[in-house]
């Protein structure tokens, strides 16, 4: 299989590295910066005999080289600096997303597309409107990362191994994020039975603020190791047709009482992309929180240039 990653910056190159290390697919890195994708790809090929992967990583500035990809991941765009919200990136990144999606689609009309560029929900919606792609073949990466940040907080607080934790963070990929503690489990037991209310609230705060915490440390940009791994996890589910359910920024069409909106929800992934939006059995409060998060995404969409 072949995976194209648009944007050979921190997130794109890290995703490429992890996809190659797992031997999942040949990877084509493409960027507007000349030399950057070529140099990083060659560097990764130099790693090949150390890590013993057999797939190829190549770098290019020409979409012709991305032809007939199975999956296209879009990470092109500027990232946050300290004090910035994801929404502050909208103006610049909307222009980039518009130029990228058309060119990438022309080269790979049958691919599954994963948007990563922030503000995620708005950028994924923009790509959907611009491309006319069927909703199952266009999604965004946000929820896998957010859920994994929640899982980290739970592991830290309870001292449990990561393999025992299943965590769910859904909704807007931003301040309007929603965590589902009742469905977040350690060895099958909900954290609501393992932690008191204050501890649960603290874990949720660490999840919601996790991205900003990394930005505050780095000062020069935003997170990329956990985002890269989250991209690779989604790519693997698609390429292996795993039918795994994970939190994905997908097109919601009536589920959870939400209409025609891109936002993180539990989704079953397979070779055709989104197989279904999975509806968890929410109580009234959880449903209201998810719908409020949807409204925050709609408010962000109002800023989208026509
Ligand atoms: P970066 O600045 O390291 O890399 C961005 C790359 O995009 C640069 O190499 C730049 O040359 C390239 N680029 C710009 N315009 C382009 C175009 N028209 N075509 C092709 N390439 C182009 O930024 P980083 O850290 O990799 O972040 C990328 C994006 O991903 C940002 O918008 C960031 O906010 C977002 N992000 C999203 C996450 C998520 O969970 N959805 C997590 C982390 C980052």
Produce a short descriptive summary.
This protein has 306 residues and is an alpha/beta fold. It has ten helices and 14 strands.
Characterization of the model:
There is one protein chain. By secondary structure, this protein is an alpha/beta fold. It contains ten helices and 14 strands. The chain has helices at 10-21, 36-46, 48-51, 90-107, 120-131, 143-158, 197-208, 210-218, 225-239, 284-301, and strands at 2-6, 26-30, 57-60, 71-74, 112-115, 138-140, 165-166, 169-171, 177-179, 185-186, 189-190, 245-252, 261-270, 273-277. Strands 3-2-1-4-5-6 form a six-stranded parallel sheet, sandwiched between helices. It has a three-stranded antiparallel sheet with strand order 7-10-11, with helices on one face. A hairpin with a 2-residue loop joins strand 10 and strand 11. Helix 1 crosses helix 9 (225-239). The protein binds 1,4-dihydronicotinamide adenine dinucleotide (NAI). 1,4-dihydronicotinamide adenine dinucleotide (NAI) binds next to helix 1 and helix 4.
Q: Helical region count?
A: 10
Mean pLDDT across every amino acid position: 97
Bound molecules: 1,4-dihydronicotinamide adenine dinucleotide
Largest sheet: 6 strands, parallel
Task: Kindly state the number of beta strands.
Answer: 14
Low-confidence stretches: none
């Amino acid at each position: 299989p072949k995976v194209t990653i648009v944007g050979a910056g921190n997130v794109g190159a890290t995703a490429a590295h992890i996809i190659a290390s797992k031997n999942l697919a040949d990877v084509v890195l493409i960027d507007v910066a000349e030399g950057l994708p070529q140099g990083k790809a060659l560097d990764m090929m130099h790693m090949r005999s150390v890590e013993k992967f057999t797939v190829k990583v190549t770098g290019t500035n020409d979409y012709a080289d991305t032809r007939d990809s199975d999956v296209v991941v879009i990470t092109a765009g500027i990232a946050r600096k300290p004090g910035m919200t994801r929404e502050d990136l909208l103006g610049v990144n909307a222009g980039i997303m518009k130029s990228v999606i058309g060119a990438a689609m022309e080269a790979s009309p049958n691919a599954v597309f994963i948007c990563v560029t922030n503000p995620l929900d708005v950028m994924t919606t923009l790509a959907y409107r611009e491309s006319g792609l069927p909703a199952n073949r266009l999604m965004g990466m946000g929820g896998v990362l957010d859920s994994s940040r929640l899982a980290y907080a739970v592991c830290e607080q309870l001292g449990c191994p990561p393999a025992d934790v299943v965590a769910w963070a859904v909704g807007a990929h931003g301040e309007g994020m929603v965590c589902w503690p009742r469905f977040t489990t350690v060895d099958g037991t909900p954290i609501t039975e393992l932690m008191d209310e204050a501890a649960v609230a603290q874990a949720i705060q660490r999840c919601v603020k996790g991205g900003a915490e990394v930005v505050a440390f780095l000062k020069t940009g935003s997170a990329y190791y956990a985002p890269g791994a989250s991209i690779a996890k989604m790519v693997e589910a698609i390429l292996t047709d795993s039918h795994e359910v994970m939190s994905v920024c997908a097109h919601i069409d009536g589920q959870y009482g939400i209409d025609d909106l891109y936002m993180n929800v539990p989704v079953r992934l397979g070779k055709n992309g989104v197989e279904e939006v999975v509806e968890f059995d929410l109580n009234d409060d959880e449903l209201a929180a998810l719908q409020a998060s949807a409204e925050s995404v709609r408010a962000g969409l109002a800023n989208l240039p026509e």
